[in-house]
Amino acid sequence: MQMPFEYGEIAMIDQLIRPHFKGFKPYRSARSETQAAKIFLDANELSLGSPVSVDGVSLNRYPDPSQTSLREVFACRHGVSPERIFCGVGSDEIIDLLIRLLCEPGKDEVLILEPTYGVYRVQADVNAVHVSSIQLDAKFQIDVGKTLEAITSDTKMLFCCSPNNPTGNLLRTNDILELSSHVRGIVVVDEAYIDFAESSDQLVSLVERFENLAVLRTLSKAWGLAGIRLGYCVAHPELVSYLLRIKAPYSVNAVTSMLALSALRNEKFFAASVETVKRERARMAEALRNVESVREVYPSDANFLLVDFLDAGKAFDALIKQGIVVRRRSEPRLRSCLRITIGTPEENGFVLRTLARMK
Ligand SMILES: *Cc1c(COP(=O)(O)O)cnc(C)c1O
After folding, report:
1. DSSP string, 135-203
2. Distance 63 CA to ligand 1 centre (A)
């Protein structure tokens, strides 16, 4: 085990990013020079307009390259400054950008805690970055001792998914914080499902105190906006400024921004959906525990249930025959499990009836 690393506030991020990004000159898009003008003839757009329209959006114009309005709204929600917010085309894009920013291919390492979200490994593979993996314990919690042993000076990133996909449980905050004080790199806490959690323990509120935490959020789950592709990261301002420099100039599009801003002004749908999902999750868990072919329903703080079946293949086939598709997992520990997303009350009822009727 190694001693905690100590770094000055700004130096920390500078010492973590790949060396060639230090003097990196980003692309200066036309619109990053000036926003206030009467006539825009700087970006080769079509001033005549567009053949289609979306209310409130000038589709013929390039969008704001630094997502100023969105970042202000997210910053306000979390009580941090907008310099701590970075927006991406889904949180998946941010995972890729973070790996690209921090990890030197063939040298640095990403540490993941499995079973977990598959995108971490895939994006590391895409970037030719080595992945080292530690298994979560029997209750899918972090094995702090084993994880600390796996951390080396080349560990540039540690991914902690809480609530974890596909197991559904929250990770213990103290475990994450302990790891963050021992890892030299960035601890990415993926809170994609946090809105469905019963506990209000959110790592996002600790980002200002623990400088190497980066928390990922998305509008794809509880906000019901997977189709617009918007995620964001709350992190150290220096990390955010590097992400802004390396991202594609106009990553988040104007329609997405407009729709996200109007969704965030209307919390009613969000609050009601979260309530319904939680209620249905409890009902499903209880009912599934009484289904003969079910061995175990794992506790969930997310919008899905991990269910262990006597014969997962048979359950999967029975559901498919009724036109219901759920997620099968290939890792050895989860081979007898299906991950079932909580649907509408009607859809959930159909799942229950199908499984209960299974011979
Ligand atoms: C669904 C999910 C996301 C969301 O990704 P987006 O690209 O924002 O849609 C992120 N992390 C985890 C663990 C997820 O399950």
Report:
1. E--TTS---HHHHHHH--TTEEEEEEESSPTTT-PPPPHHHHHHHHHH-SSEEEEE-TTGGG-SS---G
2. 24
Q: What is the pLDDT of residues 164-201, one digit of tens each?
A: 999 999 999 999 999 999 998 999 999 999 999 998 77
**CA–CA separation, 181 and 201 (whole Å):** 19
- Residue of 91, 96, 189, 193 to test ligand 1 pocket, by largest number of atoms within 8 Å of CB: 91
Atom of ligand 1 nearest to the CA of 89: 7
Helix (H) / strand (E) containing 340: strand 337-341
Domains located in the chain, CATH noted: 10-263 (3.40.640.10), 268-357 (3.90.1150.10)
| Category of 171 on φ-ψ map: left (φ > 0), alpha (ψ -120 to 50) or beta | beta
Count Cα neighbours of 145 within 13 Å in the Cβ-side half-sphere.
1
The tokens for 182 are 């021992």
Q: Which amino acid is at 175?
A: D
pLDDT confidence band for 34 (50 / 70 / 90): low
Backbone angles phi, psi at 297, to 5 degrees: -115, 120
The 10s digit of each residue's pLDDT in 196-221 is 999 877 899 899 999 999 999 999 99
**Phi and psi of 219, rounded to 5°?**
-95, 5
Residue of 169, 171, 220, 303 best suited for mutating to test ligand 1, as the one with most atoms within 8 Å of CB: 220
Ligand 1 centroid to Cα of residue 13, in Å, is 25
Reduce the DSSP state of residue 111 to 3 states and report it: strand
Q: Residue 165 C-alpha to ligand 1 middle, in angstroms?
A: 9
Question: ∠ CA 91-93-98 to the nearest 5 degrees?
Answer: 95
Please report which confidence band the pLDDT of residue 4 belongs to, taking 50, 70 and 90 as the band edges. Answer: very low
